[in-house]
Structures are given as structure tokens and as C-alpha cells.
Design a protein that fits this description.
312 residues, alpha/beta, Rossmann fold, eight-stranded mixed β-sheet, 11 helices, 16% strand, globular
Length: 312
């Protein structure tokens, strides 16, 4: 979700995405319980939105590259009425501490895995009291690598992957338009325009869905990114993870996912997943790009609700 940016200012006065979107995001965040869990390089940040009912299923949302918990902004309000919702900021992203300079993908996985074992998270959540004590894990893009690898060492009720990367060295050259590089010399409106165009090129299929909120989230998330997930995109880490477990698995791609190479690339990915997990559920979400849970939030929210209920 990043375009090699070196511009690090926050959206402020004069930025078209400042104002109401920032207030909305801040309001949702303020309703969460925040956990700062220590790991080898610092602190990993988890947030929890508690379900109002008893014995709610627990769902952990794992965001994508150059993102944060806010990748799930359009989903949390709906899901929290039905589930105990957790979201993590992955290492070097959002509010979480960065990894050492020579980090690998396994370092991010290890950080999340060790933090999930911490009683500070488990003892204060439905994870310690609901039924079997297991959770439902949902990963998006780079978060699919972390989620599928974490699944190898943690008991889960289900695993859902949205637009997973790291399924092999699949040629994507020419399929994604080069993203616009932001620079310090840009005005706030030029930064806004660049981020909006980058969302259209990589993340969101229907340009009408690229509202000020989406641009605001793109801006604050890329500004805080200290982790390069793109370097792991051609590995097989996601496939390796799901191959090693029997956890119920659903894989979703947006019909127009630019990161996956469109429909032809998605069908190739279907074959790869079927080869290692023939029991999986694989679906293509219509009229959606890579960030499908934002672009088709109502459809995704219902689909996740049904998936969790099916695997309760």
C-alpha cells in the first residue's frame, strides 16, 4: 500500500482529507481497549472492541502492508455487535514498535505469536473464557502471511485470508500501474491527489468508493510505515502456512484485485491454494479491488459473520 514515499507529514490544515475523517477514526479508536504488549524489539499494540453479549466469539483482524488497525474501519462497528473484535498493529506499522534493521518476515510472525501468548491479552478477553478458548483469525494482504504462519503454532477456530500475497514468484510486471511517489515539496492538495490516485491503481477498483476517509487512512498509514512487506510478496509463506494446518480456511480475492493480477491471476492463485488445501473455501468478491473489506464492506461483513458462525 506504499509508493516509496519519503514524505512524512500528517494531514493538517489545508489537507482535503483532514477534518471529519480524522474525527471519525479517532472516535472509533477511543471506544477500544488498548493493549501494549512487549516483544523483543519494543511494544506491539492490540485494540479490542468488546461484544455486548455473553459468550461472544473472538475475532482477530490482521491488517495489510503499510497499514494499521484502520484497514478495518468499515468493518469494526458491524462486527463488534456480534463478536469480540481484536485488531493488531503489526511490527513497524501503526502504533507498534519497529523491528531491527535486518528483520525478516519470521520476526513479524514471532512478535505476534509471542504477544498472543501473553496473559495480558488473553486474561482480559473472551479468548480465555469462550467455549474452546480459540479465536477466528482474519488476515489481509501482508497480514495473510502473518496469520497463516501464526496458525501453525496457535489453536484457531478458523482462518480467513483476504487478497493474500506470498503465494510464489508470480509475474505481475505491467499489471499494476507505478504508484506516485510523494515528496516533501508537494502541497497538501498534491499529496491528497497522489494518495487518491494510488488507491485507484492498487487498492480500490471503483473510483467512486475512494472517499476522503479512504485517502485519510492511506495518508496516515503510509506516513507511519517502517516495514517493507513488498520484499516478501514473491515468497510462498502464505501457502506454506496453510499447508501446515487443518484449520478451516477461506480465501477471498476482490474480482479486480490489481495486486493479484486481475481475474487470470486470481484463478492461478486458486489453483495454488487448492493444491495445498483442497478442503478450503475460495471465493471471488464481485466489484471489488484489493482492499475488498473497505470497498465491499457490507458484503464482507456478512460473509465473515456467516463464516464465524459456520465454524463456531
Amino acid at each position: 500500500m506504499k509508493a516509496g514515499d519519503n514524505w512524512t507529514g500528517e494531514p493538517g490544515a489545508g489537507h482535503p482529507a483532514a477534518g471529519i475523517p480524522a474525527t471519525r477514526v479517532s472516535a472509533l479508536e477511543s471506544e477500544s481497549e488498548k493493549f501494549e504488549i512487549p516483544f523483543s524489539e519494543g511494544m506491539l499494540v492490540f485494540r479490542r472492541w468488546s461484544c455486548p453479549g455473553p459468550d461472544c466469539e473472538a475475532v482477530l483482524l490482521v491488517h495489510g502492508g503499510s497499514g494499521s488497525w484502520s484497514h478495518w474501519y468499515r468493518n469494526i462497528e458491524y462486527l463488534r455487535q456480534r463478536f469480540d473484535v481484536f485488531a493488531v498493529d503489526l511490527p513497524g506499522l501503526g502504533d507498534s514498535s519497529a523491528l531491527a534493521a535486518d528483520y525478516g518476515a519470521e520476526d513479524a510472525v514471532s512478535a505476534v505469536s509471542s504477544c498472543l501468548e501473553s496473559s495480558r491479552v488473553l486474561s482480559t478477553s473472551a479468548l480465555s473464557t469462550n467455549r474452546s478458548g480459540a479465536l477466528h483469525l482474519v488476515g489481509f494482504s501482508w497480514g495473510c502471511v502473518v496469520a497463516s504462519q501464526v496458525a501453525k503454532s496457535h489453536k484457531l477456530k478458523s482462518l480467513m485470508l483476504l487478497g493474500p500475497a506470498a503465494v510464489g514468484d508470480i509475474l505481475r510486471r505491467g499489471l499494476i500501474k507505478p504508484l506516485i511517489r510523494r515528496t516533501k515539496g508537494m502541497s497538501p492538495r498534491e499529496v491528497f491527489a497522489a494518495n487518491k490516485e494510488n488507491l485507484a491503481r492498487l487498492m480500490i477498483y471503483n473510483r467512486e468508493e475512494i472517499d476522503d476517509l479512504a485517502v485519510y487512512l492511506q495518508t496516515i498509514n503510509t506516513n507511519r510505515s517502517r516495514f517493507n512487506s513488498a520484499q516478501f510478496a514473491t515468497t510462498t509463506l502464505a501457502l506454506d502456512g496453510v499447508k501446515a494446518v487443518t484449520t478451516p480456511l477461506m480465501v477471498l480475492y476482490g474480482e479486480h484485485d490489481a495486486a493479484a493480477g486481475g481475474r487470470a491471476g486470481i484463478e492461478l492463485r486458486r489453483e495454488l491454494f487448492q493444491a495445498v488445501r483442497p478442503d478450503m473455501t475460495f471465493e471471488i468478491v464481485p466489484d471489488a479491488g484489493h482492499w475488498l473489506q473497505y470497498e465491499q464492506s457490507e458484503l464482507f461483513n456478512k460473509k465473515l459473520e456467516q463464516w464465524v458462525e459456520q465454524n463456531t
